[in-house]
Amino acid sequence: MTNELLRIEGLTKAYPGVVANSDVSFAISPGEIHALLGENGAGKSTLVKMIYGLVKPDSGTMVLRGQPYTPARPSAARAAGVAMVFQHFSLFEALNVAENVALGMENPPPMRELAERIRAVSTEYGLPLDPARRVGDLSAGERQRVEIVRCLLQDPKLLIMDEPTSVLTPQEVDILFQTLRQLSAEGTAILYISHKLEEIRALCDGATILRRGKVVATCTPRDVSARDMAELMVGAVLNPPARAARRDWGDASPALEVAGLSAPSPIAFGTSLKNISFSVQRGEVLGIAGVAGNGQDELLLALSGELATDPGMIKAKGAPVGDLGPNARRALGFVAAPEDRLGHAAAPDMSLVENALLSGVVRKGLTKRGFIDWGATKNWAAEIVAQYDVRTPGTWVAARALSGGNLQKFLMGRELSQAPEVVIINQPTWGVDAAAAAFIRQEILNRAQDGAAVVVISQDLDDLLEVSDRFAALNEGRLTPTRPTEGLTVDEIGLMMGGAHGMEVAHHG
Amino acid sequence: MIAGGALFALLGKDPVVAIRTIFWDPIFGEFAFYLRGQLLVKAGPLILIAVGLSLGFRAGIWNIGAEGQYIMGAVFGAAVGLAMFPTDSRWIFPVMIVAGAFGGWVWAMIPAILKTRFNTNEILVSLMLVYVAQTILSKAATGFLRNPEGMGFPGSRNFSGFPAARNAELIAGSGLHWGGVAAFIAVIGAYVLLQRHILGFQIKLAGQAPRAARFAGVAPTKLVVLCMGLSGALAGLAGMFEVTGPAGQISIDFASGYGFTAIIVAFLGRLNPVGILLAGLVMALTYVGGEMASTNLGLPSAAIQAFQGMLLFFLLAVDLLSNYRIRFLKGRAA
């Protein structure tokens, strides 16, 4: 067992009320691409935070290259050769690429030298980057490249990647995988966290599966089917969402019609919407794909009523609603779920009960002459928690205390249990595990079955392919014509999404 | 309190006696029968203003100009009352209450509308309007509201000689006047608003997560107008009760800093109505006790103000320290 880069032995970390990791052990060899799999709340984040020095384990040991390894802070981890690319980018949009990279370094070299090194490293690994460009102008894929290059400049022995592909087009994913394979061939080990089992099968040499803080299995992903891995993760048998034949509701006009929707973005560095048109009938699901930052947030704002447009640009059952605010639209049967959960869909410091009230007050009738019926709100929040399997000590817990996936389940439950007529969701299964994703997709289909018109905006193609009847893609604020989902190939979808944004695969040899 | 004691000791006074004079004697000392009443007189306007301010602060709307709204409430209320001098009707006082609230409301609407229309900074505008209000006040005292029988001295007619418009003590010697009653009503009203009413929920939401508030359908401009208006009206009420009661007349030095002290009270009370009630009483105690200390012990009144400032400073420090941990870094640049 000499050929080991990192060995973890009996790592345990408990938080009040929950054991995040219990006696976790595994090992990574140099050059290995090792997958870390698990449901939400299984303890993956806690585990990598311990490796990266953000969290201190209660007990257990780590050995890095034969030496005891107890990083007290991320800078110590970086000094030891461990680098991490976070799921959420930590970049300053107003600064350029080189400045952003310099901010993450302990002793940044002079700017000109740094720019040279960025250029050299990024071309070597097939991730072309212009060090002088402002990060605010970059696509999500390019921003990720900045993060990766920032890590590579530190010449890491172990690179931790947390859900790296969630913001990429299929083509961009291919390029990323090329880079990761190249790194692995050079001896850098990669700890790869993802929910996308097919990716793990394509990329990883070994996998450790966590469930409720414990290692439940290790496997070689190539030899196991994605389905088996998912079932190991969840500890239960999974069923793909069932879809009944669509009913014809015989409506004269579509439940939701968008015609020539153009609107400037209210967000700094946002994408304005340009002449978007589509319509959705009752019982129908329209899937909208696209790489992050191509107008998804803005489209959701316009549909939810947070961004007012000309009245006629958005119509519900033929009636113009473009100038109505969120609550007026909710009264008409609209529900919306923004992508950003903390701060937009939910108030971080408020309890789940208060957050249930936040968007449910109109449709659930939770006020009487303006006075809040806290009893009814509590009951409803408790129902959501039970029905959507939200793991929380109670409904009095603040939203920020929930793990990302659990909060996502709660927020999806909040919107989908309001008997909606028009559903608009951005990233329905963002950060949730396979079982919860399947459940949420099933609920979306059920609402469509009940007669709701559904718009699902997502960067996760699995979401879209499983639930949508028709398919379109957003690209720089423009929407492609819609096409029936059946019969679409991944390549065609990639082209609709705008290809690889000028990315090139590295050519070696 | 320890730092305050040290300050008093530095000034050459016995710290124990000084602190006892401030905190103990007003309630239990030999003049307590009078000073307890003073306590309510001082606490009433503080609480009334602070409750209004706290609603705005909760929503992230910073009305710093309560002093100006307080003055304008007094001027409006007094002007309406004096215009009817010397008729006698029981409707005069209620009309003056409405006028006082209206005065404060109007003064608060100026920054509110400038903010919603032109996105000006409400902190600066409301603060600057305090100085405008003070100018109007001195104009009123020396000009349009001057007592015609005052032989040319600045200052309006005294309301103590005008029973129909007078804000008298409700129970003799208790110090409780209508302003105190209004303060209690405001505390209860604000509590109910914040705990039970959807508007209170929206105020809290807007302060904590502005984007979530938009998602929840809260219109930011409406909220600004509402919060500024409420805090202005309450400050105006406080001014009106003050001018007709304890102060008795519009005079040049009528403004006593209640509007600014109320900001401290609002934060001392953690922006919570019940907390503000207690904080207002404590603050009134330092006022009353401070006056005692300056007359009995010869402490400069500036020392008392420094002491009040220390209270707020330490409270904010405790807040910060309970949320963050101090790390000492050894001479390393970020």
TrEMBL record, chain A:
Keyword Nucleotide-binding attributed: yes
Broad class of the protein's primary localization: membrane
GO MF term list: ATP binding; ATP hydrolysis activity
GO cellular component: a single term: plasma membrane
Keywords annotated in UniProt: ATP-binding, Cell membrane, Membrane, Nucleotide-binding, Repeat, Sugar transport, Translocase, Transport
ABC transporter domain segment(s): 6-237, 256-501
InterPro entries xrefs: AAA+_ATPase, ABC_carbohydrate_import_ATPase, ABC_transporter-like_ATP-bd, ABC_transporter-like_CS, P-loop_NTPase
PROSITE patterns xref list: ABC_TRANSPORTER_1 (PS00211), ABC_TRANSPORTER_2 (PS50893)
Chain ranges passing through the membrane: none
Family annotation (SUPFAM superfamilies): P-loop containing nucleoside triphosphate hydrolases
Superkingdom of origin organism: Bacteria
Annotated membrane topology: Peripheral membrane protein
Localisation: Cell membrane
Keyword Ligase assigned: no
CDD domains linked to this entry: ABC_Carb_Monos_I, ABC_Carb_Monos_II
Pfam families: ABC_tran
PANTHER family in the cross-refs: CARBOHYDRATE TRANSPORT ATP-BINDING PROTEIN MG119-RELATED (PTHR43790), GUANOSINE IMPORT ATP-BINDING PROTEIN NUPO (PTHR43790:SF4)
Protein name listed in UniProt: Nucleoside ABC transporter ATP-binding protein
Organism of provenance: Pseudorhodobacter antarcticus
UniProtKB/TrEMBL annotation, chain B:
InterPro entries in the cross-refs: ABC_transp_permease
GO cellular component term, pick one: plasma membrane
Membrane topology: Multi-pass membrane protein
Cellular compartment(s): Cell membrane
Domain of life: Bacteria
Main location: membrane
Transmembrane segments: 42-61, 68-85, 91-114, 123-145, 176-194, 215-241, 247-267, 274-290, 302-322
Keyword line: Cell membrane, Membrane, Transmembrane, Transmembrane helix
UniProt GO molecular function: transmembrane transporter activity
PANTHER family the UniProt entry points to: ABC TRANSPORTER, PERMEASE PROTEIN, GUANOSINE ABC TRANSPORTER PERMEASE PROTEIN NUPP
Designated name of the protein: Nucleoside ABC transporter membrane protein
